[in-house]
UniProtKB/TrEMBL annotation:
Gene3D superfamilies documented for this protein: 3.30.70.100
Short name of one Pfam family: HMA
Source organism: Halobaculum roseum
Domain HMA: 1-64
Name of this protein: Heavy-metal-associated domain-containing protein
InterPro entries xref list: HMA_dom, HMA_dom_sf
UniProt xrefs under SUPFAM superfamilies: HMA, heavy metal-associated domain
Length: 67
């Protein structure tokens, strides 16, 4: 399953990497792609959406699950 998360506040490649690293730490995540220009992260796997949003917010960014 692929989940898309809207991520606000990324301004550079380091930001993308920080968000990607945070999402990869969530249980059930198998792959992550982060794009600061579209302000989105695509997450593959069976991770809980609220855990994904929490991981991004804990990394210092604003996140919302796309419905």
């Amino acid at each position: 399953m692929t989940t898309t998360i809207n991520v606000e506040g990324m301004s550079c490649g380091h930001c993308e990497q920080t968000v990607e690293d945070a999402l990869r730490e969530v249980s059930g995540v198998t792959d992550v792609t982060v794009d600061r220009e579209s302000e989105q992260a695509s997450v593959n796997g069976e991770a809980d959406v609220s855990a994904l949003v929490e991981a991004v917010e804990d990394a210092g960014y604003t996140a919302h699950a796309r419905v």
